[in-house]
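Its record is quoted verbatim for completeness.
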Amino acid sequence: MTRALLVSLSAFVVAIAVINPTGDFPLNDDWSYGSAVKGLVEQGVYRLSDWTAMPLLTQVMWGSLFCLPRGFSFTALRLSTLTMSLLALVCLLLMIRRTGESRPSILLAGGLCLLFDPVWLGLSNTFMTDVHFIALALLSLHLLAIGMESGRLSTLALGIASAVLATLIRQVGILIPVGFGLGYLTRHRPRPRDLLLALIFLSLTVAAYVLYSLLLASGPGLPAAYNAHFDRIVATLGSGLPAILGLVGQNLLTTLIYLGLFMLPLNLLLLGSMSRPRLALFFSVSLAVLVLFNLLNLTLPGNILTDRGLGPFTLARPEDFSSFSGSLVSRAVFGGLAFLGIGLLLESLRRIARSLHGNAVSVMLVAFLACYFLSFCLSRQFDRYMLGYLPLLVVLTVQALRGIKVRAWNRSVALTCAGLYGLFSVAATHDYLAWNRARWHALDHLTEELAVSPAEIDGGFEFNGWHGFSHEYQRAPGRSWWWVEDDAYKVALGPLPGYDTFKEYPTGTWLPGSVRRVYLLRKSGFRPPDDNPLRHVAAATAGLGPSGETGAGR
């Protein structure tokens, strides 16, 4: 355990040092969540943006602690997430150790399977809710597992307290006491007091969420998107049985593909102990899943992971730029990894099912995963939502490996795969920060050096949301739906029709498909008004003529 923990922590530190997550700018939905922290830290006011679709309370309080020493910044918020990512990694290794597994290589493979997952590592360097929620959910489930096995009520209470904290980030945390109750009642023949305890824990979690929502509604007000997840579930349930089954089927295929990819570094340990008939069967099913997915013309929902690295790519883009490059090489690599991953995932699930009998902790984890799956299948899927399954499947798979001899070549293959995932994940996360850093350099040049108002700039989702979000925004024809008042200037991923290139910013990215340059564009024929002397001073400083035309020193 100690060796695996030290290696995992060392890998974590090296990865973060290489990535360099500094920069006072938001990524993805960070602008929405960060605005709540900023208001609390600087004004003592707690208010959530209308874009926010979850309680967020625990995360806001946690992020505020990291802003206290030097004031609000998105770098401080990323540090708060990295701390939570570290907590999740430690909880995962402790949960794996509780299964009785002591082989260092398997413990290490389990830890690296989470740490080097590209979506996990990428989100660990943001202020998105995924890592914060999963870290507290893992802490809760770990404490509940200890309390369930030891019978200590105090430990169970701490587990439920952690579940409440998780629920006050995301509503789906309510499913933790549901999973606990189902696992707790399978320890032996259910007694009335066991059922009462399970109901009390569930009631406390639900009550905390309801009370918080009522206080929010009576005070600063519920965000407009607060109940969006529940509303989508209700809409799905009202769409009729055929539509429900169709949606669940599509989401099942999507989930199998993503989890096959995410679990591959660990599941490769299973390869040497699979019989040839099972190999043939499961890889045939894997092929059928991929063929059916393509025959139905389904597409992966994406959001974070692409063959270009990590996104989302939230800037204006030329028509020939898409989040997935679709290159033949990337499709072949992705298809091969998915084929292998799905087949091994099926073997992993088979072994997990066989190990459930008489294991209340495993029942708790599987029950939570099943409820989690149904919750998101009836709503919407993103690749980052798959992270909710990943650490628990790692624990369950390691438990299923107990007593099975893993050959040296098998361990080498698994750890090599984890290392390759790590190289990609570190490079992709580095690139995501790098091109966003270039984007914000361009925006700072406009707003600070040229004194252009943010209302005149389409700077992409994060910039527009941070400066101009409005729930009542009405999109004008030809403009982005990302809250654009005027798009005289744009920061884009390439040249655009109707715009002149004002300046280019190299990004210093590493991966072949990454964004190489960020473009600062100005609408063709547009001239800034002459009544702002700051623009002329800034233009002269930037090496531009008084009309704003690009000078020779660009």
In short: The longest helix spans residues 408-449. The chain has two domains: 2-428, 429-541. Residues 263 and 393 are 8 Å apart (CA to CA).
